[in-house]
Structures are given as C-alpha cells and as structure tokens.
TrEMBL record:
Membrane topology according to the record: Multi-pass membrane protein
Organism name: Candidatus Gemmiger excrementigallinarum
Cellular localisation: Cell membrane
Listed name of the protein: DMT family transporter
GO CC terms: plasma membrane
UniProt cross-references to PANTHER family, sorted A to Z: INNER MEMBRANE PROTEIN YTFF (PTHR42920:SF11), OS03G0707200 PROTEIN-RELATED (PTHR42920)
Pfam families, A to Z: EamA
Protein family per UniProt: Belongs to the EamA transporter family.
Keywords: Cell membrane, Membrane, Transmembrane, Transmembrane helix
Primary localization class, coarse: membrane
Transmembrane segments: 7-29, 35-52, 73-92, 104-122, 129-145, 182-204, 210-233, 245-263, 269-286
Length: 289
C-alpha cells in the first residue's frame, strides 16, 4: 500500500517534469504558433502515454486500475475542455512576457485550485493555506505589473493567470476521477485536448511547423504534460487537490531558474521581491497540515 511519502514524491516528480514546460516552450514558440504549440504538447502527452500502455500490455504488466465509466463523463468532458483553453492561454502569455515570469506565475494555480476546491467541494482551507494564498496572490500581482507608475498590467501575465484559473478548475474535475486509471486519464486528456486545440489552430490559419520542431514539441508534451500529469493524478489520490497543488508548486521555481540560465536574463528588482513572496507562500502551502 502506498505511503504518504510515495504520494509526496509523485507530486514533486510531477513538478520537476512540468518545470521544463515554460522555458522550452518559449524557445520552441520562435518557430511554432502558440495554438499549434498547445495542440502538439497535448498530442505528445496522449501519444506518448498510449505507447507506454502498449508497452505494458506487450510485457503483460498492465496495472489493475479502475477504468473511466459513464458516470465520469461530465468530469472527463470538463477536464478536456479546460485543457484546451489553459495551454492556449499559457502559450499566448509566453509570447508576451518572459519565461521566468511565466514560470513563477504558474504558482497562481495554488490559489485557483484551493479556492475552487473550497467553493465546489467544501475542501477545508486552513489559516496557513489562507496565508499562502495571500502571499502567492501578491507575488502574482507584482509579476503582472508592467508599469508601476501607471499600474498597467502585462497582457502576457493576464493570459497566464487565465491559464492558471482554467487549470484550477481542471484540477478539481480531475480530483473527482483521481481513483481511476491515471494513464487512461492522461491519454484521454492528451488526445481530446490536443485534437481540440489542433482544430482551433487550423481554423486560425496556423500551420504545422518543420518536422524537427514538431517532434520537439511532441516530446516536450510527453514529458512536461504526459508524465507530469500521470504522477500528479496519482498524488491526488493520497493528498487531495489543494495539497497536491502545493507540492507541485516547486515547478515554477525550477522553471524560473532554468529560464534565467537558458535565456541569460537579468530580471528587474521587482522579480526578486516577487520570488521571495512566492517562496514564502509556497513554503506555507507545502507545510500545511
């Protein structure tokens, strides 16, 4: 039987895989249109995990998991629809602000997930987690301000916050089916959301990129979305939506660090203030009992 440490390790592993998303997507977006990029990421997740399941069947080691049932359809549809919107918003945001900012802003998902878990499922939020929500929200505001003299907000940051809100809703949809086969959920999510995004991309006039960039996006999707989501869903079984999201909050810090190295950026002073606030909020959330 899985121990609490097993679930925590799964959440942290999910965070490490997802940390690759913002910096490497930012690099690929130089050659791949944003909506097409979102489609390829999720198709890579679905296709990659489908191959994993095929490999399990070939060696006769398919885990005994409960499959999705008809009663799960509303949550499954909600999950797919929200996963069409969220990555598109994120990719648009990445084209309009830095990858380091986007990485840290991803922590707003803690706020969205926890508040939605409270409103829809009555999941308890402690004083410590409320304090974490305040710190993360203030940090997100700092990262979103484009011009402090006029208090104008970065459009790119607004799109990232929209993505986080969609993922907060999606986390709670997934929470309701977290006891079902995680790999099957990722395959459905990947192909469903990827196909939906692909249709939107083609309707917008976007075209497939060169094969090398397309394969790069598919591979990134397999790791940053496929493997990450699979471990995230498994962690939700033992930790709940809000708690899993708190451990998953390591991903933005790892992503921000990789972004600063990859793009050789020199952040503004407000970035370091936001980083400190975000770190405090993340610590409060991850140590909440």
């Amino acid at each position: 039987m899985a121990t609490p440490r097993t679930y925590i390790f799964s959440a942290i592993l999910a965070a490490a895989f997802y940390a690759l998303n913002a910096p490497l997507s930012k690099w690929l977006l130089a050659e791949v249109p944003p909506t097409m990029m979102a489609a390829l990421l999720y198709l890579g997740a679905g296709g990659g995990m489908a191959l994993v399941r095929a490999g399990q069947r070939a060696v006769g080691r398919v885990p005994r998991e409960a499959p999705l049932a008809r009663a799960d359809l509303p949550y499954t549809v909600g999950m797919v629809v929200l996963d069409i919107a969220a990555p598109i918003f994120l990719m648009i945001g990445l084209t309009r602000t830095t990858a380091a900012n986007v990485s840290l802003l991803n922590n707003f998902e803690i706020v969205a997930t926890a508040l939605i878990a409270l409103g829809l499922f009555g999941e308890r939020i402690s004083r410590r987690l409320w304090a974490a929500i305040v710190f993360v929200t203030v940090s997100s505001i700092l990262l979103s301000v484009e011009d402090s003299s006029s208090f104008s907000f970065s459009l790119g940051s607004v799109f990232v916050l929209l993505a986080c809100t969609c993922w907060g809703l999606e986390n709670n949809c997934t929470r309701s089916i977290a006891d079902k086969d995680p790999l099957q959920i990722v395959v459905v999510k990947g192909f469903g959301s990827g196909a939906g995004s692909l249709v939107i991309a083609l309707m917008l006039g976007e075209r497939l990129p060169a094969p090398g960039y397309a394969l790069g996006a598919l591979a990134l999707g397999f790791v940053a979305y496929g493997l990450s989501i699979r471990f995230y869903i498994y962690a939700q079984r033992g930790l709940g939506a809000a708690k899993t999201s708190a451990y998953y909050a390591l991903a933005p810090f790892l992503g921000a660090g990789l972004s600063l190295v990859l793009f050789r950026q020199r952040p503004q002073p407000y970035f370091w203030a936001a980083l400190l606030l975000m770190a405090v909020g993340t610590w409060l959330a991850s140590t909440d009992q």
